[in-house]
Design brief:
By secondary structure, the chain is α+β, with helices and mostly antiparallel strands. The chain folds into 3 domains: 159 residues, Beta-Lactamase (2-Layer Sandwich); 109 residues, Orthogonal Bundle (Helix Hairpins), CATH 1.10.287; 147 residues, 2-Layer Sandwich (Heat Shock Protein 90). Helix content is 58%, strand content 16%. Strands 2-1-5-4-3 form a 5-stranded antiparallel beta sheet, covered by helices on one side. Strands 7-9-10-12-11 form a 5-stranded mixed beta sheet, covered by helices on one side. A hairpin with a 5-residue loop joins strand 4 and strand 5. Helix 1 runs antiparallel to helix 3, helix 4 runs antiparallel to helix 5 and helix 8 runs antiparallel to helix 11. The chain is rod-shaped. It catalyses: ATP + protein L-histidine = ADP + protein N-phospho-L-histidine. Keywords: Coiled coil, Kinase, Membrane, Phosphoprotein, Transferase, Transmembrane, Transmembrane helix, Two-component regulatory system. This is histidine kinase. GO terms for molecular function: phosphoprotein phosphatase activity; phosphorelay sensor kinase activity. It is found in: Membrane.
Length: 454
């Protein structure tokens, strides 16, 4: 039974339960109905005799004969009356039996041809004139035997109908009960295979419906968690790829000055040519070491960008924050005699962590100051959905823009000579991606513009 499927198991449980109930009812009817019926007949005869006794008490003994005769005919019984030594029988049945006992009884007359069951009741009654009358009432219990015969005749048919009903009801009930469970089995199998469209179509509001609804909610949360993990996985792969590219670029970037420094030191070591003047070229070697130290510091700071923890975003007023960053570059701006126009509205706000905002705009303003020609112009402005910085310079070509976000990328030797390390826009891109902002770097008339969409 434990290995049996749910539908046949439910069917058999229901069928045997109904079969037990119907069998018990049939047995109860067969065995108890005759006894109950006979008991009711005796009670009814007893009540009729009580009524007869009251009527006799209102009449004299001489007038009781007609009353007994009417009683016998009306109730289809034989009434034997014994009074003052005489005995008279009033016939209401078509046969008579002589008994030798005064006790009430019920017995089967098996020695008679009709073999009827007999009910006998004895009672002493008193007439109006005080004379006592012994009354014996004999009634037929044939209706009980007829009822038993009818039950015996119908029992096979009713029992067969009950079995058929049990089979049909068990089938329909089992089908109704197991159908949602089979539906759950099919749907959960789809859920096991992570099919996005898998879901229960809940129609009922009972416990099965609530269970299906809860499974739907759990599966939706599971899919959401899986999607989140996939996104996180793709993000981590992208970060790892970005780190790999960055490290390769950093290695290449460090390799060139290290090679130059090695050659310089070897020439000084072997007193080759002009390098005999060690004091002069020792200072140059120290400058190269300082250059390498600065480059390593920039590389380390840039590598930390990808590992920055998610900081709480806050409402920032762009004008005030950018104004503070401009103050840091006030000396360079004055040295190059640049014209800076800051036209950001006072109510221009955005949600971003303050640390990220300062890093982004420090790099953007630093690049603009560094690559704007002497006496050039820098414009910072904003409207309802974007904020931008624009500087006058030679616009970049499409080919140059394709690599502009690569770490250590420099457009030409002129820009490299200006002191840039090629990491500014790479840092800006990584930070804006982490914060979820869209951006674009594009050429405009006589310059370049970097736009951040709010």
């Amino acid at each position: 039974m434990k290995k049996m499927k749910l539908f046949p198991k439910t069917f058999l449980y229901t069928f045997f339960m109904l079969l037990f109930i119907t069998t018990s009812m049939h047995l109860m009817i067969y065995f108890f109905y005759p006894k109950v019926y006979l008991s009711r007949m005796q009670d009814q005869l007893e009540k009729k005799m009580d009524t007869l006794q009251q009527e006799i008490k209102r009449n004299a003994a001489a007038e009781a004969g007609q009353i007994f005769s009417d009683f016998a005919k009306q109730n289809n019984v034989n009434v034997t009356v014994e009074c003052a030594g005489s005995e008279v029988t009033y016939m209401g049945m078509d046969f008579q039996i002589s008994l030798y006992t005064d006790a009430d009884m019920v017995f089967d007359v098996s020695n008679l041809e009709n073999a009827e069951s007999i009910i006998v009741k004895n009672k002493t009654m008193e007439a109006d004139d005080g004379i006592e009358i012994q009354v014996e009432v004999m009634a037929s219990a044939m209706p009980v035997k007829e009822a038993v015969d009818m039950i015996t005749f119908l029992l096979p048919f009713t029992f067969g109908a009950a079995i058929l009903f049990s089979i049909v009801f068990s089938y329909l009930y089992s089908r109704r009960i197991t159908r949602p469970i089979f539906h759950m089995l099919n749907v959960t199998n789809d859920m096991k295979n992570l099919k996005p469209e898998a879901a229960f179509h809940v129609q009922d509001e009972d416990e099965v419906g609530l269970l299906a609804e809860q499974i739907n909610q759990v599966y939706e949360q599971l899919l959401a968690t899986i999607r989140s993990l996939d996104e996180e996985k793709e993000h981590m792969l992208a970060v790892e790829k970005s780190k790999t590219v960055f490290l390769r670029s950093a290695s290449h970037e460090l390799k060139t000055p290290l090679s130059g420094l090695r050659i310089l030191l070897e020439n000084m070591q072997y007193n080759i040519g002009k390098y005999k003047d060690r004091d002069k070229y020792l200072a140059e070697a120290v400058a190269k070491v300082d250059e390498l130290s600065g480059m390593v510091r920039d590389i380390l700071d840039t590598s930390k960008v990808q590992d920055l923890q998610e900081e709480e975003k806050q409402k920032l007023y762009a004008g005030g924050e950018i104004g503070a960053v401009l103050q840091e570059y006030a000396m360079q701006i004055a040295d190059k005699k640049l014209e800076v126009t800051d036209s950001i509205p006072e109510d221009c706000m955005l949600f971003m962590s303050r640390n990220t905002f300062q890093k982004v705009w420090s790099n953007l303003i630093g690049n603009a100051v560094q690559y704007t020609e002497q006496g050039g112009q820098i414009t910072i402005a904003a409207d309802t959905d974007k904020i931008w910085i624009e500087n006058s310079c030679t616009p970049l070509t499409e080919e140059q823009l394709a690599y502009i976000y690569e770490p250590f990328y420099r457009v030409d030797d002129t820009r490299a000579a200006s002191g840039g390390n090629g990491l500014g826009l790479y840092v800006v891109r990584e930070l804006l991606k982490k914060e979820g902002f869209r951006y674009v770097f594009e050429p405009v008339e006589d310059g370049m513009r970097f736009t951040i969409f709010l």
